Amino acid sequence: MIVHNLEKQATVLNAFLSQIRDESVQKDRLRFRKNIERIGEIIAFELSKSLSFEDAEIQTPLGAKQMLLPQDDLVICSVLRAGIPLHNGLLNYFDDAGSAFISAYRKHKDNSDDFEIVVEYFASPDLNGKTLILADPMLATGQSLVAVSKALQKYGRPKRIFIASVIASEAGIAYVQKHFPEDTILLVASVDSELNSKGYIIPGLGDAGDLAFGPKL
């Protein structure tokens, strides 16, 4: 798997990352969602550099212009509910992409730290021959992404797979590498080194779904 850690470059991305991490700023849900969306736009731009392009002639009112235009048939699949702002950011750049949605959550056993990933809802177009972008803002253990990938197999075999994440752990990246094709490309805004005993990224930012949409029952 090819990993692009975007925070290694000194760009405006770091300003958005600092705001979604800062506990004094992230309490503003609208601002949190907007920053995740803007990070999604940056990821989309970087991802576009790995797509397929073909030469096309565009007619302007004054003449013709040869341009390279993207050719991939894209499907963006987001993990509910935290993935929605990231999904919107990707769609802002890939406006012709199809959309898929899937729910995946941790089911803890007897209130312990041990858990399994449960997938209950998914809706997707045909994935055969498509370029699939899996959007999950927090790549913690990697188990959710692997479960989602397996659940999507009933919809067909994509031509290529990209993973778009905001924050990932080193352990989560290593786990995903073992279960995804070698040519999978991961674009992540920031990588943290640790997971706590509950499988949450440290320092991370907390629960992205709760910060974006409010606490769940």
Count of individual helical segments: 6
**Roughly how many Å is the radius of gyration?**
18 Å
Strand content: 35-45%
Instruction: Determine the structural class based on helices, strands and strand pairing.
Output: alpha/beta
Secondary-structure element series: EHHEEEHEEEEHEHEEEH
Describe this structure in words.
Helix 5 links the parallel strand 9 and strand 10 (185-192). This protein is an alpha/beta fold. The protein has one domain (2-50, 73-213): Rossmann fold. Strands 1, 4, 5, 6, 7, 8, 9 and 10 form an eight-stranded mixed sheet that branches. The mean pLDDT is 92. Helix content is 29%, strand content 35%. It has six helices and twelve strands. The protein starts with a strand and ends with a helix.
Short structural summary:
With 217 residues, the protein is α/β, with parallel strands linked by helices. The chain contains 6 helices and 12 strands.
Topology readout:
Elements: E1 2-5, H1 13-21, H2 29-48, E2 53-60, E3 63-70, E4 74-80, H3 84-93, E5 98-108, E6 115-123, E7 131-135, E8 138-139, H4 143-151, E9 160-169, H5 170-179, E10 185-192, E11 194-195, E12 201-202, H6 208-213
Parallel strand pairs: 1-10, 4-5, 4-7, 7-9, 8-9, 9-10
Antiparallel strand pairs: 2-3, 5-6, 11-12
Helix pairs in contact: 1-2, 2-3
Keywords, separated by commas or semicolons:
single chain; 217 residues; alpha/beta; Rossmann fold; eight-stranded mixed β-sheet; two-stranded antiparallel sheet; 35% strand; globular
